[in-house]
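hey so u asked for the seq, here:
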Amino acid sequence: MEVNRELVQQVQAYVHSFYQEHISDKFVFHNVEHTDSVVKAVRLIGEKMERIPESDIQLLEIAAWFHDTGYDQGAVDHEKRSADYAETFLAEVGLHIDLIEKIKAIILSTRRFFEPTNELEQIMRDADFSHLGSEQYWDRCSRLRQELLMTQQDFKTEVEWATYEVDFMTRHQFHTLIARGLYDQDKARNIRRLKKYFKRVQLADEGTELLEKKKKKKKKKDVPDKELKQLNLGRGVETMYRTTYRTHVNLSSIADNKANIMLSINAIIISIVVSNLVPRIQDNRLLAVPTFTLLAVCLLALVFAILSTRPKVTEGKFSREDIRKKKSNLLFFGNFYNMEIDDFHWGMMEMIKDSDFLYSSMTRDLYYLGVVLAKKYKYLRICYGVFMYGLIASVLAFAAIFMFTG
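ran it, structure tokens below
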């Protein structure tokens, strides 16, 4: 059997199924999307090289589909496993042994530091690294870093990763003239952007180190032993607090909007029922039950909607003794609106000076925000439940009345 388009399609379907069943989601770089892009690249390069026949391009496509299937058992020796998987499948479909060996050689040419010995191997290697000269480089680069961390616990700092990428990109060269024409310009642009990024992270890293040294030197020279124990929480924790606060505020806004919707709807229904249905009860006594049921449902839903938005204001005052004992939370207006401005200012300065006090106040504030949110959503859930089931019951009651009177 010789290669043909039907065989290439068979291989494509098999490899797609293989990735779904055998390749872990942790391989976010060496996934089926990467394989698909390599297949497209080998065809693009092969078609532009006029002396490469269609049969060889199809060989390249088959090799490209199989070249990373060995990742089902990890990165080590994956090329050898990929070649073996290709041999097993292609032998089963009856492909000629010489063509199988040719495909295996193309797959094995993707090994690290391998020097290609013919044009097909050159095309395969160029296609495998085609992302270096494309807009997808930054996405693929971040995916590779993520994959190394998840599969090999290989963590690199921003400076280490930028150093590695700059070194790799500047040493790498495409083998074929066609690939150079297709990818070198964009690759050069990516290298320039990468070098700028490297300078930024290097300066940031050097600045951080210098700042830490100055802080340590100043602490040793000027600060008492007690203050040396203050918690160094860093930007990550600050981002966590900022994000959590924003989430709480957004959830509170969503709850208020939902409550306002229920207030408006039920108020409209009550006004319509009172003006249109209640006067008709004298003519048809049977309308009394569903009408007053609907009114009761709407009033009850209104009550719970109001409860979910009703503000609760506390005493609004903490003493200096409470602040000294770190029992106060000056980040919420309900805790300080009755305090004297001097006491409030003093308390805020005490909190700012003590990072432990500051972060514990923020934590306490988040907790009580969560408690308030829980009450809001509890009342809202009851409100929507009453409205939904009550409305259904009322409509069914009206339907029964009209069927009975009809």
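DSSP finds 14 helices and no strands in the chain. The two ends are 79 Å apart (CA to CA).
lmk if thats what u needed
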